[in-house]
Design a protein that fits this description.
Structural class: mainly alpha
Number of strands: 0
Number of helices: 2
Shape: elongated
Largest sheet: none
Distance between the termini: 26 Å
Helix content: over 70%
Number of domains: 1
Order of helices and strands: HH
């Protein structure tokens, strides 16, 4: 059985910062696009 994971707002903000930094550091366009897609999802979750 899968238990629901709870991530705090502070954790989400930390994830957002790390994803943004990774997006800036990579030179692979496909990877960068995926990172920014996930970053967008994290930001939407923070806004909820």
């Amino acid at each position: 059985m899968i238990e629901e994971m709870c991530i705090s707002l502070k954790d989400l903000q930390g994830i957002r910062i790390k994803l943004f930094q990774l997006g800036l550091m990579t030179t692979d366009k496909e990877l960068s696009d995926k990172i920014y897609e996930v970053l967008d999802l994290v930001e939407k979750k923070i806004e909820e």
